[in-house]
Design the sequence.
């Protein structure tokens, strides 16, 4: 499973990071991309969970 943080976004006083994770779909077996925008401190936690 590949995972990668792709962008750092800065809006007013908050720094945000957009993370994209490739996840295998249990129904079809195909890989799908899941995106989320979060604070940089939470990226590793989000990427580690399934």
Sequence:
């Amino acid at each position: 499973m590949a995972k990668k943080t792709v962008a750092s976004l800065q809006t007013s006083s908050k720094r945000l990071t957009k993370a994209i994770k490739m996840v295998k779909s249990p129904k079809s077996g195909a890989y799908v991309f899941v995106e989320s925008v979060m604070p940089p401190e939470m990226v590793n936690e989000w990427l580690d969970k399934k």
Helices lie at 43-48.
